[in-house]
Design a protein that fits this description.
The chain is α/β, with parallel strands linked by helices. It has one domain (2-155): Rossmann fold (3-Layer(aba) Sandwich), CATH 3.40.50. The chain is built from 6 helices and 6 strands; from the N terminus they run E-H-E-H-E-H-E-H-E-E-H-H. It has helices spanning 15-27, 52-63, 84-94, 118-124, 158-166, 177-185, and strands at residues 2-8, 32-37, 69-72, 99-105, 126-130, 146-148. The chain has a 6-stranded parallel sheet with strand order 3-2-1-4-5-6, with helices on both faces. Helix 2 packs antiparallel against helix 6 (177-185). Catalyzes the reversible adenylation of nicotinate mononucleotide (NaMN) to nicotinic acid adenine dinucleotide (NaAD). Pfam families: CTP_transf_like (PF01467). InterPro entries: Cyt_trans-like, NadD/NMNAT, Rossmann-like_a/b/a_fold. Keywords: ATP-binding, NAD, Nucleotide-binding, Nucleotidyltransferase, Pyridine nucleotide biosynthesis, Transferase. It comes from Pontibacter rugosus.
Length: 190
Amino acid sequence: MKVGLLFGSFNPIHIGHLILANFMASNTDLDVVWLVVSPQNPFKPSNTLLHEFDRLEMVTLAIAENPNLGVSNIEFSMPKPSYTIDTLTYLQEKYPSYEFVLLMGEDNLPLFPKWKNSEKILEYHKVYVYPRSGSITTEIPEMSNISFVKAPILDISATFIRQCIREEKSIRYLVPDAVAAYIQAHKLYQ
């Protein structure tokens, strides 16, 4: 089984995440894409993050009817902040017959060398890089484990969605209906 891993805070999950994950599962050699809910990104402040279980529930609701997508809370039980190499190592030990592929936005490439043990990630795992709006293509050394995937670019951000909610503007079509209902029922991001 070849599993693509799309890491994110998903604060909240939106259609951009879902379109990308589904595209990668359907248009590459991946069998499935798991959305890995990160409790804390080492490069982002955690004070704006909704509780990890709310974010996990929204991802679960968003992908409920798509067999190409899965959700993982693997990082919930790991030390925080979460480091990708540690998560990949843990997953490989837990699922030794699976091949895990890291899915990364092009905007993360300049930061990638600063990631903990980034060279080990490339040594043991493939990385599929997808385009991001406003990204400037970065010159990186030719590496056999990095592949660029021409995926659709959607300029939607969780920050924009949270702002819409605070301003009492519609988020219809930006997030799945089940996610919008969850946000409204729990009065999130207000």
